[in-house]
Amino acid sequence: MSLQVSELRVYYRTLKGEVRALDGMTFELGDGEILGLVGESGCGKSTLGKSLIRMDGRMRHVGGTVVLDGQELPIGDDRAMNDFRFREVSLIPQYAMSALNPTRKLRKMVTELLRSRGSAVDTAELERRMDQVGLPREVLDRYPIELSGGMKQRMVMVISTLLDPSLLIADEVTSALDVSTQKAVARALLGFRESGYVKSMIFVTHDIALTHHIADTIMVMYAGRLAEKAPADVIVKAPRHPYTKLLLDSLPEVGVRYADRRLEGIPGSPPSLLDPPTGCRFRARCPIAGDECAQDPPVAELAPDHHVACWKA
Amino acid sequence: MRRYFSRKLLIYGLTFFVAVTVNWLIPRFMPGDPVAGMVARANVAQPEAVEAMRAYYNDLFGFDQPLWQQYVNFWGAMFRGDFGISIWLFPTPVSTVINGAVPYTLGLIIPSVLLSWVVGNRFGAYAARRKLLDNTVLPVGYVLTAMPYMWLAVLLAWALGVIAGLFPVAGGYSFSMRPNWSWTFVLDLLHHWTLPFLSLFLVALGGWAIGMRNMIIYELESDYSNYLSALGAPARLIRRYAFRNAVLPQITGLALQLGVLVAGALVTEIVFAYPGLGSLILKAIQNQDFFLLQGTFLFIVLGVLIANFIIDIVYVVVDPRTRAGMAGAQA
């Protein structure tokens, strides 16, 4: 097992109190596995991604452990975590377009970054990786402003994986891209795993269709908790959790005209995590909720590798 | 690049033309007649002699010609390097008077502007990361930067000069001395220079420190800083990048502030009776000395324009984004 997360709790400090963005997440990620992490905005998927590499100032590690390759990650300790960043865990941020220092040429920036982490730049290796994602080599002698959005994105992908991290977190990397670039990015990420630049990957997104193409496993989160986790095909074709089903139903299908039937979303909105309701958190919006849902549903393995947190599943 | 600079030069040329024209206009619209003053100074009683003197001076300064002719003559003379003859110090040429004052003004302005900028930036960047400093010293910066130059100058002269008796409060050097290249004279010069320098330095320092503090905080929270932190880059590297990027708006600020700083220096000179251009302007106004006033203003306008042009060049060198803009010819 590459990554084991157990009972992870991360809260946000706000003026009104603590927001329980992650409230007891438990899951595992195998070597070479790509995990697609999906859910609505505010379900905690970005918080999970951030918790695994760098918490921002408002986040607090309340409980639970993260073990990567047999070593526990000191996720609550910003300084101690530095040893693991980039080498063991790396990140392709949501803001890849603005992630590069605008006043440094890329070659210089990469050199300085690697030197600060005690590594030297292997130019041949760097150029090979740039070739792999289709970046011309002269990009290294340019400033970030001279690159297109897609080029910046790919450059960030190359930089983030230069030290061959064990786990790569790709946070909403495709949200700002058009469809053809999305495809290229997805292909590049798969290529990285094949070439062994990264061992496993967490792909945070709200695009289930795209996740289906690149992820081995899909994990659906709801209100800071795991709702369902299963192999990608199973999630898409035979979901068990009512939330996953509704999420899939709200996607448009190719070739279907929505003249007769209006595309329905999921009525209602996710509960406030400032003071979350007891029992199943999806209860208020769930069409099949019953009395037992007043109790917290445990995460049960209904079939091999198919984990669902629902009484009715 | 060429297009950018030729465009900039055109703008500077236009500014120069307008500024010089205004310089020429202002003294001529001041109430009072300089020739009448000179004649009165001569203390002549006979009306014929007064009339003859008036005619002589009017002819000498060219006041008998129509205004437009005076204006054209003025431009012509300026390009020959002739700024006319001072009325106040008649018959010393204006250029000689200005030459005597310029070293004092430059010696005051250049160190105070550059040092306050460098120290203010360093200090602001440092304070941005220290809560204690941020809460104690920066409020002092706000007070300093809100202070009018001459008021701080008066305060300093009173506290350090009159009460403590540490520094002289007037003149560029002791009245008992003659300028020469001896150590005693240089020390005396520095001694007189300290207070005017301090008042200029302190007021500007507060402003730069505050600006830099805000810029650094903004840069440290920017995406590229977050990305570097997420990759475990040491704080030193991130701060270096942040500082370098935060300095760019400060350079623009320097260009914008230059005129204000020069004006502040002139007023400060007057407070300390420092023999620079500021004191010269005051004297020129008091004596209706058109030519001296024109000459001094011209010098200041030239100085500010040249300094701005240098900053423009520096900016192009340090910020790659301006160069990218030039390629698209948007600059």
UniProtKB/TrEMBL annotation, chain A:
Molecular function per GO: ATP binding; ATP hydrolysis activity
Record key words, sorted: ATP-binding, Nucleotide-binding, Transport
Domain of life: Bacteria
Domain annotation ABC transporter: ranges: 3-248
Entry keyword Metal-binding: no
Biological process terms in GO annotation: peptide transport
SUPFAM superfamilies: P-loop containing nucleoside triphosphate hydrolases
Keyword Metal-binding attached: no
Coiled-coil boundaries: none
The protein's name in its UniProt record: ABC transporter ATP-binding protein
Source organism (scientific name): Nonomuraea deserti
TrEMBL record, chain B:
Subcellular location: Cell membrane; Membrane
Family matches, as InterPro entries: MetI-like, MetI-like_sf
Transmembrane segments: 9-26, 101-119, 140-170, 190-210, 254-277, 297-318
Endpoints of the signal sequence: none
Alphabetically ordered keywords of this record: Membrane, Transmembrane, Transmembrane helix, Transport
ABC transmembrane type-1 domain ranges (all copies): 102-311
Segments forming a coiled coil: none
Domain of life: Bacteria
Any GO BP: transmembrane transport
Membrane topology value: Multi-pass membrane protein
Record GO cellular component, one term: plasma membrane
Family affiliation: Belongs to the binding-protein-dependent transport system permease family.
This protein's name: ABC transporter permease
Organism field: Nonomuraea deserti
